[in-house]
Amino acid sequence: MVVLSSTSTNKISLTILHQVPEGHVGVYWRGGALLKTITDPGVRNIPCGTKGGVMINFNRIEVVNRLNKDAVYDTLLNYGVHYDKTWIYDKIHHEINQFCSSHALQQVYIDMFDQIDERMKDALQGDCTRYAPGVEIISVRVTKPTIPESIRHNYEQMEEERTKIIMEQKLMEKESARSQQQIDNEMNLAREKSMADAYYYRLVKEAEANTLKLTPQYLELRFIEAIANNTKMYFGDKIPNMVFDQKLLGNFLESVAKMPRKEAF
């Protein structure tokens, strides 16, 4: 068990950098009163100043490491049994502050936060490989930093506005797509109507042409042509079974009479 006293008179605020070793938990007293807060192993409450001067606090950084068997003797000979304090827990504070001091709050808190774990792992492993080659950094996990309340409120408002803008943009895109679909439908309808009108117009004109063409003279001509094309005509025993319009028959006979006759030799 690791014991840490706190003199803060406000709400629970454990802002003193401290470390809880593996196999232990951290408990806290404030003004002699035991707090209910219990923490797990790891580096705790690392203060960090961003490039813009804003102070933030990483509540917890966990580092999982392993000492290779072949390097145990040299590592303990050079750095003692607390080698991890020298090359991991003390150094993580330096590395996280180096990162914060070269980046703005927006980058640390939002834009590049998902990269911090890997960056810290690479930084720790680089020095361990150089000075304590038996130490292997397996993983690093950094919790989301706490930021001043006023800034956090501003970020929440910004996130709310950003979400609102995204929703409005999606709504506009849907409205635009619906308008485009309506335009396409109207164009298709106009095209189909135009084709139907053209087809109807053609039928009307054909009907008008047929009406103008079906004169008595034209019908008489067609009748004569039909009769003339017949090579055989059959008559019944009684008065004719084939009945002709007298006018048409007379005109037909008159036209036959006018045809030139062949002389017999």
TrEMBL record:
Chief location of this protein within or outside the cell: endoplasmic reticulum
SMART domains assigned to the protein according to its UniProt record, in alphabetical order: PHB
Domain Band intervals: 15-159
Keywords of this entry: Endoplasmic reticulum, Glycoprotein, Membrane, Signal-anchor, Transmembrane, Transmembrane helix
Pfam family, one: Band_7
Gene Ontology BP annotations: SREBP signaling pathway
Top-rank lineage group of the source organism: Eukaryota
Topology of this chain in the membrane: Single-pass type II membrane protein
One GO MF term attached to the UniProt entry: cholesterol binding
Cellular component, GO, one term: endoplasmic reticulum membrane
Localisation: Endoplasmic reticulum membrane
Phosphoprotein among keywords: no
UniProt family annotation: Belongs to the band 7/mec-2 family.
Protein name, per record: Band 7 domain-containing protein
Source organism of this protein record: Chenopodium quinoa
Upper lineage: Eukaryota, Viridiplantae, Streptophyta, Embryophyta, Tracheophyta
